[in-house]
């Protein structure tokens, strides 16, 4: 597990690569290699841990990854609460469109 975290999260972060991206169409996690469309999301929550926060996504239906997905914000540049607020703003905006 430690090697997975180093290879999938720490090395890309040290290289300055994008780990997490949000836009009008959805969320892209380059660490998890997944693209999530806003319309597929039932709800999003944030859980603050000892060393970092995570965003928990609940899908409207079962996917090949299950019904829930956790995206850690440990190596995402920025304030965790501001990132969560931005994600929620995009989600709300997608419901209006």
Short descriptors:
single chain, 97 residues, alpha+beta, PH-domain like, three-stranded antiparallel β-sheet, 2 helices, globular, disordered N terminus
Question: What does this molecule look like?
Answer:
The chain has 2 helices and 6 strands. With 97 residues, the chain is an alpha+beta fold. The chain has one domain (2-96): FACT complex subunit Spt16p/Cdc68p (PH-domain like), CATH 2.30.29.210. A 3-stranded antiparallel sheet has the order 1-2-3, covered by helices on one side. The protein has a 3-stranded antiparallel sheet with strand order 4-5-6, with helices on one face. A hairpin with a 3-residue loop joins strand 1 and strand 2 (26-29). It is globular and about 30 Å long. The model is unreliable at 1-9 (pLDDT under 50).
Give a short synopsis of this structure.
The protein has 97 residues and is an alpha+beta fold.
